[in-house]
Amino acid sequence: MSTSIGYGKIILLGEHAVVYGYPAVAAALERRVQIETRRGSGMVILSGGSAMAMRKRLPSGGPREEDSFAWAYQAIISSLGIEPSAIHHDFVVTSDIPPRSGLGSSAALAVALARALDSALGLGASERAIAAAAHAAESVFHGNPSGIDHAIAQYGGFGVYRKGTGLVPLRANPFTLCVGQSGRSRDTRTCVQRVARLHRDNPSVALRSLEALGLLAQSGVDAILRGDRAALGRAMNHNQEELSVLGVSCDEIDAMCVAARRAGALGVKLTGGGGGGSVIALADDPERVRGAWKQAGFESFVAAVGGAQPLETAG
Ligand code: PMV
User: Fold this and answer.
1) What is its EC number (predicted)?
2) Predicted model pTM
């Protein structure tokens, strides 16, 4: 039996701008998808007990929301050049990443599944092939992903991501963040479309924000490398303002940002696609921020980000 993992992620700075070619800074979250591989018949067994057989024939009419997992699985198999009848394993999935919250759960699942299939079938796939398989799956879930989620899911640590160039690792010390749940599902696809509409209809407004986000990502890299928490917090706050201008925040996220700043957070912002999902706060007293969120009805946890763990273990 072997274990494969994919890391959850947060985007510290630069979401949405990354879709337009600007840099973004992301980090692995101390939460992950883990897949145990055992002999079987090609089932993917999700935590909670639901099992999905590898389908020989997919439903007609293209991916629909309820079938997206089956299509994503199929996309990984085709990308890795696997003949479905060659799979004599089941894949048992566990995850502690809250789903649909902008924390990269689908990318972590895609990477872990690609690694599990690679290892079970002894393919010897390159990291590039794992990335291509994860990208194919993410395209089913999200349409046209920049690739930042699955890059971090694959490598862990901190990284600066640019479309085309990929992930450049950043050697920095992990630190902790408060991660709060807005209680509303994040809606990456809609928010990416909203920004695209603004970019088309009001390019000067959109470009001003997108460029600012790119510059903030660059200054954030310096702050992370220097360990300058105050500067990183300021960049996060400014990042959140620009995301509001782009129209991808929401009332719950705005309320969480106000509460976190009142509770002493150095910086706070949404992470990921927006419209809901998670909020991250950098704070010297994380429990104070959590307390403020709890009082306002928002769940949260504290987690290290930027940790680098082994990519795969076999036993
Ligand atoms: O919502 P998530 O965790 O999938 O993050 C989306 C990040 C965006 O920059 C908004 C889109 C992308 O593809 O990079």
Assistant:
1) 2.7.1.36
2) 0.89
